[in-house]
Amino acid sequence: MRYLPMQRNKIFIAHSNSGQQLLDWHARRENCARNLGYKIETMAMMDYHPYTIFPYLDKKWKKRDTVLMRFYEKLGEKIADSDIFIHYNGALIHPKFLQQFTQLKIYHCADDPEASDVISRPVVHAYDIHAISNPTCLDLYRSWGCKHVFFWPLGAFHYDFAVENRSQTAVRDISLSFVGTKYGVTRWRYVHRIPILKYWSGLYTKKAFFDRLEQAFPSMVAYGGGWRMGRIEDSDIPDLYRRTLVGINVHNNMGVHNGRLFDLAAYGVCQICDNKQHLHHVFVPGKEIIGYESTNEAIDLIRYYLAHPNEANAIGIAGRERYYRDYTMDAIWNKFFEDLGRLSITADLSGV
């Protein structure tokens, strides 16, 4: 195989994200890639079809659902006009639809392993390359027979490198903060739709954890669904993080790949994060991030770093330096295309 210079190719990205925050994020990513010299165009697939997991997508495909076929007609025109196709976020595209295209096809997913059976595993063999945002799942893809797999970090959601001054001078007068839902996902799919169970705290993965944290740290500043202070405007999050000494992070699943992971590092927050055994895939534990495995351990660590602010600041500074080195949008795009080059990708590569 020969190396194919990526900047000479037309790259088309179709993603299955929704919401203004994520649409703006994708627009920033596209502009960043263009500024680096790449010819990239992005489509928000949910402008044409609602999010659908594979079992239902497969039924629609077999019935040749009118809305789906109309969407695929538009999608197919864009893919046919490209050299490289990137399917971002993993949903909405049936593998049999892709059989007609000879373009290099790259698959991305950030919902493994919990959603693998209904999102990624049924479709992965339709793609040549797999760029995955949960670094703990790379071997999972290899176990499915995928030969060309690499880590593609999400990066920060609330950080704009172009307007942020690298030297942070804000006083960190907020001891502990969290931005995100207090509840998390349900332990069993769709059970929250049963009225009698909707408010049962044991149904949600995060609520019991955060109830303990609220009791231990009543001054914690928290925003999002289920919190007393309600939601926070996206435009106010940067100032919150600049002022935060310690930030807590909790994932909905196994792995280290949510946007908060990179947001906290970007703003120099001392991050105390779950999934302790997997943090080494992204940051250096004990130097750039602090990990915990249980609620009690998280509480003990928060108490320690609030009592030792100089150590907390050192963790935050190291995490920030790592972010600037490896996880800005520029750095993530450069590494993405470097990995493609390392694999000696060509447009006629076949198989997974």
Summarize the structure in words:
34% of the residues lie in helices and 14% in strands. It is α/β, with parallel strands linked by helices and 352 residues long. It folds into 2 domains: 10-155 and 329-350, Rossmann fold; 174-327, Rossmann fold, CATH 3.40.50. The strands form 2 sheets. It has a 6-stranded parallel β-sheet with strand order 2-1-3-4-5-6, with helices on both faces. A 5-stranded parallel β-sheet has the order 8-7-9-10-11, with helices on both faces. Helix 8 packs across helix 10. It is globular and about 60 Å long. It comes from Cylindrospermopsis raciborskii CENA303. This is Spore protein YkvP/CgeB glycosyl transferase-like domain-containing protein. Residues 210-336 form the Spore protein YkvP/CgeB glycosyl transferase-like domain.
In short:
The chain is an alpha/beta fold and 352 residues long. The protein has 11 helices and 11 strands.
